Amino acid sequence: LWPVTWLVGVYLARLHRRLTGKCHFVLDDVSYNGIRVQTWIVTHFGRHFRTAPSLADVRRNVEVAARAAEVAGARVLCLGALNKAETLNGGGRGLLPVLSSDRETCVVHGNHLTAAAVWHTTVRLHSAGLACRKPVFITGASSKTGRAVALALHAQGIDCLCHSSSLERQRDLQLEGLKTTGCLSDGTGSCLWVVGKFDPQIRTHMPHGAVACVFSVPSPLDETRPDVYVVEGATLRLDSTRLSAPRTFSNLLREDEIYACHASSIV
């Protein structure tokens, strides 16, 4: 089926904008506690983020969607998933020049609420004794969200071991008083993992019966590790009684769940 998916990808990344003048699809339109909330998607395949020409198309499509949100009167534009990638638009900063200088639309990336949700979940798991008095092993600890989580846990006195493949980023974490490593195998002695990076090797090194607080999208853990207890660290719960109608798109979550980065638009 690859010829078909390739053609679909070309249409979504390059032709849809030129033929219709827009780049987004509206998948959800509800009110939550009196606040109108829409879910828009700008559809691309993973391959579109790997080459400069394709990435330029993605960047332009996200910019066009952001401009459409402003014209539609959105007060808050919340970027989720790869729409806020550093290589794409610097976490959303690159969108500001394409919006009006006197705009009333606020652009947020939701990482702050994601970090707070992961921190809160990890603290609860640690307080329940699930770390087994061993360091919490954190992957993706040098990213923006992972670093914030690691620093917050460290400030609370929770022992952490942070994984990063970059020696420079390891040194940055060490200056903050955190212990670091470049080897996933160093996490085999930890019962509680915070997984913030997609790396299939995690399945090999995570110990039997471990607890994983996951905020990586996609998650590296699959059916090959049924012994691992997975907790979605970056999701929040909606009060269903405050929804004007059932949600039609929950992004693979339960109807009453929402990713923290998306929930920041409501907050």
Task: Explain what you see.
The protein has 267 residues and is an alpha/beta fold. The protein is 33% helix and 19% strand. The strands form 4 sheets. It has a 6-stranded parallel sheet with strand order 7-6-5-8-9-10, with helices on one face. It starts with a helix and ends with a helix.
Reconstruct the topology from this structure.
Blueprint: H1 2-20, E1 25-32, E2 35-41, H2 52-71, E3 76-78, H3 86-89, E4 106-108, H4 111-127, E5 136-139, H5 144-155, E6 160-163, H6 167-175, E7 179-181, E8 192-195, H7 202-205, E9 211-214, E10 229-232, E11 235-237, E12 257-259, H8 260-263
Parallel strand pairs: 3-4, 5-6, 5-8, 6-7, 8-9, 9-10
Antiparallel strand pairs: 1-2, 11-12
Helix pairs in contact: 4-5
| SS-based class | alpha/beta
Task: Describe the main β-sheet briefly.
Answer: 6 strands, parallel
Identify the overall geometry.
globular
Instruction: Give the % helix.
Output: 25-40%
- Cα separation of the termini: 42 Å
> Which percent range describes the beta-strand content?
15-25%
How many H/I helices? 8
Q: How many E strands?
A: 12
Ranges where pLDDT stays below 50 over 5 or more residues in a row are: none
Using only C-alpha atoms, the radius of gyration works out to 20 Å
Task: Give the rounded overall mean pLDDT.
Answer: 93
Read across the widest sheet, the strand sequence of neighbours is 7-6-5-8-9-10
Order of helices and strands: HEEHEHEHEHEHEEHEEEEH
